[in-house]
Amino acid sequence: MATHFPGLMRKHASERPGDPALREKEYGIWQTWSWQRAEQETRWLAAGLAALGFAQGQNLALAGDNRPYLYLMFVAAQSLGGVPVPMYQDAVAAEMAFVVQDAQVRFVFAEDQEQVDKILELRASEPGLLTHIIYDDARGMRNYTHAGLISVEELMALGRQHEQQHPQLLTDAVAAVQPLDVAVILYTSGTTGRPKGVCQTHASFIGAAEGGVRIDALGSRDNVLSYLPPAWVGDFLFSMAQWLVAGFTINCPESGDTIGIDMREIGPTYYFAPPRVFEGMLTAVSIRMEDAARVKQWMHRKFMDVARRAGADILDGKPVPWRQRLMYGLGHLLVYGPLKNAMGLSRIRVAYTAGAAIGPDLFRFFRSIGVNLKQLYGQTETCAYVCIQHNGHVKLNSVGQAAPGIELKIGDSGEVLVKGVSVFKEYYRRPDATAEVIDAEGYFHTGDAGVLDHDGHLRIIDRARDVGKLASGAMFAPNYIENKLKFFPQIKEAVCFGHERDKVCAFINIDFEAVGNWAERQGLPYAGYVDLACKSEVLKMVAECVEKVNADLAAEEGMEDTQIARFLVLHKELDPDDDELTRTRKVRRGFIAEKYGVLIEALYAGLAEQFIETAVKFEDGRAGKVSATLKIMDAKTFAPVRSAA
């Protein structure tokens, strides 16, 4: 096995040059890169970068959607001993500025005109940086004559010429790459402060990839849809590291709007998505069932009952009575198969979710219809690789056992500590921050609070910094409660409060599509999100969801005192553009508490309603304000359910 990414690329090109490495859908047609073509064009891209002055130790920023040349540019930079630094493609120029400044970026790969415009805006305010801009999609770029601007085609032509003049250049450069060299810098989301550049080596990501590949027997015949942000650690693990270790094919969708169609066309065998994607799939199924004929609704309910009783056991190879197995087979023909096909999951052999906790009921749904959905746990600092669930050993309330090559323990404060193959080298130019999270024994302090059961399965409670106490002394884990709320298709986001307070209160975002569909069937008119969110009928429906969550909490030891006492439905969706969520859609809890302080105080003061006016940013860049008088609801709570001794 090669010890760095350029070596893995060359290995596949040498051993199976004609096999498909990448596909891209363009103008409705799938285009294929063989391993030979991928390696050859990577070589030309690297030689072109060298001709422009890119050298060992320099950083190459990347901004764009999942495209073949974006992934090839990762390896091209690494081939010269450089370091790729992906940025979130939906970030505005101001958000990219920190990464560009911190990493001292001179070279950048920008997918299209939109990304080039942001880079040019940044360059105007950062003299000496961003001297070379390479773009992929030439549409709209005809009149762009800025200095240092060059297309991918022009870069490869320059590279071919440079390689002819310096035939030994790339061979020597790749030979100089070492396993412990930094392979990528991935910036954290900055939920608690300014982002930090996480330096991960070739060895750490390859080690993490090898562990996952062995557990799930991944190989060259597998297909993956690459659609998640390339700046996210999960995409780098699945679409780069495991791709180059296992040699499967990665498929780049035509656009974000066609992912569902592209999934059905490709039929991936291996799939990775954060919980919100699976939540969206289930919401879409629920909406379709609500609109279906009564016969179909009856059939769906009938066979989903069968699936809940037997589906997970059949998936895990456990004994199931023949009558249930027969009914399940009929259900697969009539319900589960068509459902999986509609979601693009008909050929899935293994699927993973990570990035946030997933509701047990959501997890159970997918496994019950035959989707081998498992959980992966990790952070950017651990290559998203700490715990992994093995086939036949999946627990709905855990994130699995320590992955191969990982040592795991719980600190005295309840924090999860990790040591092993996937732990990062350092924060870029931040030795102080590195020393804060890696202790003298080499353990990385994850910042998550968790417990290990008798089988070594890890259960994550919450972020350690977010775990607090109610005024009564009871433990308060807001994320745990929020995830229970978000299982309901009507609820898209939730934020809970209660630290050092006498009760738990919550902000809730409705799912506009799901609730809008429900409102239309009820004959309930609405003028937009603000109007719909304030409807008394909608508030009643959300109250029923909160009531069910409270009933669950009342039955859980240690959680019975954290039932939601009061809640309100926010008048706007929480949005990364408004700094309320990170680009990976994690709640920025402190920012929200400060921004909506008047609403929090109204909840705890016992008020029945509260007026608020909120600044928002529109998609076209304009700023505006949204105002509403929000009704505050009291939630039904339950006496604790004590189990028999």
How big a fraction of the residues is strand?
Answer: 15-25%
The secondary structure category is alpha/beta
- Helix count equals 21
Biggest sheet layout: 5 strands, parallel
| Rg result | 25 Å
The largest sheet has its strands arranged as 4-3-5-6-7
Fraction of helical residues: 40-55%
Name the poorly predicted regions.
Answer: none
Number of extended strands: 28
| Global shape | globular
- N- to C-terminal separation? 55 Å
In words, what does this structure look like?
It is a single chain. This protein is α/β, with parallel strands linked by helices. Helices cover 40% and strands 22% of the residues. A five-stranded parallel beta sheet has the order 4-3-5-6-7, sandwiched between helices. The protein has a five-stranded mixed beta sheet with strand order 12-13-14-15-16, covered by helices on one side. Strands 24-25-26-28-27 form a five-stranded mixed beta sheet, sandwiched between helices. Strand 27 and strand 28 form a beta hairpin. The longest helix has 22 residues, at 294-315. The radius of gyration is 25 Å and the shape is globular. The termini are far apart.
Which helices and strands, and how do they pair?
Elements: H1 5-15, E1 20-26, E2 29-34, H2 35-52, E3 59-63, H3 68-79, E4 83-87, H4 93-102, E5 107-110, H5 113-125, E6 132-135, E7 149-151, H6 152-165, H7 169-175, E8 182-187, E9 197-201, H8 202-216, E10 223-225, H9 233-246, E11 249-252, H10 259-266, E12 270-272, H11 275-291, H12 294-315, H13 322-343, E13 350-353, H14 360-368, E14 373-377, E15 387-388, E16 401-402, E17 406-410, E18 415-420, E19 426-427, H15 431-437, E20 444-452, E21 458-463, E22 468-469, E23 475-476, H16 478-486, E24 491-497, E25 504-510, H17 512-521, H18 529-533, H19 536-554, E26 564-569, H20 589-595, H21 597-605, E27 609-617, E28 623-634
Parallel strand pairs: 1-11, 3-4, 3-5, 5-6, 6-7, 10-11, 12-13, 13-14, 25-26
Antiparallel strand pairs: 1-2, 8-9, 9-19, 14-15, 15-16, 17-18, 18-20, 20-21, 22-23, 24-25, 26-28, 27-28
